[in-house]
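Query structure, 240 tokens:
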């Protein structure tokens, strides 16, 4: 499993070095690089991100202000040219703190630490809320709802809706609520059958009855197609 990563730094040269390192690291999936912290904040709020390489000293929003603005915080590796920020960074439970100029060996050490922390966190969440057998050839998942474990057939799932800290999994004859994240459950479903169309919705391609530019319909349910997901959704549609 690859970690979805973004890098944020207002210095283009420093950002290009991080970008080069990220592309060389096989367990990272680079989702974007940003020199504008406001643009980056919008992206992170609307998309699944596992790890951020985050510069601390930036205009508009400092790295610490950026983190404070996030409701759900991914793993963080701070990057900065100022060593005096090191102590403050650990208050935010950062995975690591990289002082510029960053050598690849030091970058890789921090990245491996992030990988292990993510693996531990992901496995704990999966064990407690959703389980899938060894591969996608299975026809079901198990979902924990309250104190009960529910078996859900994958081919009966219509769509999944995010509702605050919970998600609701809508099947043909039932609604199952579980305490988990959209980004976690999408990783457990076959990508050929399920697609995220909005920050709050994942849909089964098999049950889409009508598609309009800004919404689709499944069993009389109108589901919005978010601007961020529109292009990938229609590309996915062409390939099915």
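Result returned for the query:
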């Amino acid at each position: 499993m690859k970690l979805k990563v973004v890098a944020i730094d207002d210095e283009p040269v420093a950002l290009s070095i991080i970008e080069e390192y990220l592309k060389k690291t096989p367990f990272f999936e680079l989702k974007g690089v940003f020199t504008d912290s406001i643009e980056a904040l919008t992206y992170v709020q609307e998309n699944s991100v596992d790890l951020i390489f985050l510069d601390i000293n930036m205009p508009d929003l400092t790295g610490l202000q950026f983190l404070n603005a996030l409701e759900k915080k991914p793993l963080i590796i701070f990057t900065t040219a100022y060593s005096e920020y090191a102590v403050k960074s650990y208050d935010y439970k950062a995975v690591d703190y990289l002082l510029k100029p960053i050598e690849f060996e030091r970058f890789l050490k921090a990245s491996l630490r992030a990988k292990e922390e993510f693996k531990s966190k992901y496995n704990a969440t999966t064990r407690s809320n959703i389980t899938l057998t060894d591969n996608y050839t299975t026809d079901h998942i198990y979902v924990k709802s309250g104190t009960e474990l529910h078996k859900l057939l994958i081919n009966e799932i219509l769509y999944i809706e995010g509702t605050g800290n919970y998600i609701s999994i809508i099947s043909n004859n039932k609604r199952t609520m579980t305490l988990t994240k959209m980004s976690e459950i999408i990783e457990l479903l076959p990508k050929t059958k399920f697609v995220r169309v909005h920050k709050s919705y994942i849909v089964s391609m098999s049950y889409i009855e009508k598609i309009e530019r800004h919404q689709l319909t499944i069993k009389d349910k109108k589901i919005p197609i978010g601007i961020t997901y529109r292009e990938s959704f229609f590309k996915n549609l062409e390939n099915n």
